[in-house]
Amino acid sequence: xxxxxxxxxxxxxxxxxxxxxxxxxxxxxxxxxxxxxxxxxxxxxxxxxxxxxxxxxxxxxxxxxxxxxxxxxxxxxxxxxxxxxxxxxxxxxxxxxxxxxxxxxxxxxxxxxxxxxxxxxxxxxxxxxxxxxxxxxxxxxxxxxxxxxxxxxxxxxxxxxxxxxxxxxxxxxxxxxxxxxxxxxxxxxxxxxxxxxxxxxxxxxxxxxxxxxxxxxxxxxxxxxxxxxxxxxxxxxxxxxxxxxxxxxx
Length: 250
What we know:
Elements: H1 3-27, E1 37-45, E2 55-64, E3 71-73, E4 80-82, E5 86-91, E6 97-100, E7 106-107, E8 113-115, E9 118-119, E10 121-122, E11 125-126, E12 134-137, E13 142-146, E14 156-160, E15 163-165, E16 171-173, E17 179-181, E18 200-202, E19 204-206, H2 212-249
Antiparallel strand pairs: 1-2, 3-19, 4-18, 5-6, 5-15, 7-8, 8-9, 10-11, 12-13, 13-14, 16-17
Helix pairs in contact: 1-2
């Protein structure tokens, strides 16, 4: 079989993988605080005995775009936008800690603060609030409530959001879309320390930093590359059939 088929097949697979990254970005164009994934195509030399004359394409995810998204005012008390490099801590399914810029906080029927179903972490663990209470959050992440039936002057601080500060190189995206610190030499991930200087903007949401126009252009480009690789495979197959026909005639 012509080796060009293997080259084209690998190119088609890499284009397909890159398309998955672009599709995920486009699907999250309206997700609060979403950070776009970055992908790139590179040429990798095939290692082996003899002269290195072949190279194959390889699609790789370079990381995430940490550019801040647009901030929109919502006037909802439990909507937060984060200033600078601030992140909010949430509890993952395995009980560990991860970080997100998504700020559309909800209160479930048990009074637990959560973001997309994941408990918001406070200074003493997941934050639980009195049911039917009126909630407000200060710029430093202090959570205050007025319990149902109480007067405004009875407002009391009940918890403190765990806010951390992390520069882009400190965090890596997980399969669940949440961010965690880089693992150490032993592969262990240590939670970040709370930063008292981190600030939030209540009543506002940071939007996704995905540019839908760029994502659509990238999607079309990936589709065309995939089609080109499939045409190469088809052409190689037709050439082999023609060559076999000539050999059979002899």
